[in-house]
């Protein structure tokens, strides 16, 4: 296992510290950092930056994916930030952006299915949101972005990665972080419009699903009752770590079926990770299985992340989905779970925007920035990247005015 330590001169606080050297430690295994040291620097970040989460993910994905972990230190305060980089394949699976590229002559239609880009990502390809880095209070946003970009350059100095990486990605900033967008674009990155993230705000007045229903229009209530009726034959159970481990074969089949329905595939999760996450996080991680006549026909996974329920992947038996409303029932159950836990938001993630808006979720545009490693190609690709638009959908309004 290799590790490197470098020093870079950036201002991490005020003018008095301008130019102070920052030590950048790069490791290939999260276990190379003490959990207490890492988690102290990541304390203000999401659950997906915690040492335990990263350990379980790495253990499951070790043969399929590479990781780099960075710890930032300054002389005065010690550890002041962490960052996670993932080496993942971006696979075209028939998305409309690649169709546009074919029309523009950027590549032939016959190679679309073979289009695969190896990306070095600051972030987490398995979750929607800003989960790539965290700094302690007092570190200016400009210093954070400079440190992260220079850390990515340090990671890329490894010849084993440099010859394989086609694009650098920062994934992904919430609306309102214009400073991050401006700074990254000033460093040669292009803003890439992706499909929106669907987020549902949970009203504290909803004490249960019945309370939520009272806020709906008559049409939306009818739609919800139809979902519950169509899915009534499903047996729904929360799985512990042992039950997850016993079901990984079938769960992988169901997850792979969903991935193959996606226009793009950015990393392929191995479901073995869920048992490790459940062991570490207990009730903060929920994996719910859906059975029909004794057969597992679906599952959904979600994490309690602060005051938010972060939905992750689902697995679906599409042959039974329409008749038994498996996926729609999962969306309802995630909302009911958030209400029962007293959470304030459900982060449903991307895809199926219309179905999620039917429950009250609204679209949130996330900021993704990309830079092709070939300088000339990066300049030529800029206009095309800026023309990419998210997929259109019908936004529903289920709440009474």
Structural account:
The protein is α+β, with helices and mostly antiparallel strands and 401 residues long. Helix content is 35%, strand content 28%. α2 packs antiparallel against α11.
Keywords:
7-stranded mixed beta sheet; globular; 401 residues; alpha+beta; 10-stranded mixed beta sheet; 17 strands; 15 helices
Q: How many angstroms separate the termini?
A: 59 Å
Strand content: 25-35%
Low-pLDDT segments: 101-114
Please state the average pLDDT score: 89
**Overall 3D form:** globular
Total beta strand runs: 17
Largest sheet: 10 strands, mixed
State the helix count: 15
Q: Which structural class should the secondary elements be placed in?
A: alpha+beta
Q: What does the radius of gyration come to?
A: 22 Å
Percentage of residues in helical conformation:
25-40%
Helix and strand topology:
Layout: E1 3-9, E2 21-27, H1 35-41, H2 51-61, E3 66-74, E4 78-92, H3 96-103, E5 116-122, E6 133-135, H4 141-156, H5 159-162, E7 167-173, H6 178-186, E8 190-193, E9 197-201, H7 209-214, H8 218-230, E10 235-238, H9 241-246, H10 248-259, E11 264-266, H11 272-281, E12 285-292, E13 295-305, E14 308-316, H12 318-324, H13 326-340, E15 345-349, H14 353-357, E16 362-364, E17 367-372, H15 375-387
Parallel strand pairs: 5-7, 14-15
Antiparallel strand pairs: 1-2, 2-3, 3-4, 4-5, 4-6, 4-11, 7-17, 8-17, 9-15, 9-16, 10-12, 12-13, 13-14
Helix pairs in contact: 2-11, 4-6
Quick description:
By secondary structure, this protein is an alpha+beta fold. It has helices at about 35-40, 50-60, 95-105, 140-155, 160, 180-185, 210-215, 220-230, 240-245, 250-260, 270-280, 320-325, 325-340, 355, 375-385, and strands at about 5-10, 20-25, 65-75, 80-90, 115-120, 135, 165-175, 190-195, 195-200, 235-240, 265, 285-290, 295-305, 310-315, 345-350, 360-365, 365-370. The strands form 2 sheets. Strands 1, 2, 3, 4, 5, 6, 7, 8, 11 and 17 form a 10-stranded mixed sheet that branches. Strands 10-12-13-14-15-9-16 form a 7-stranded mixed sheet, with helices on both faces.
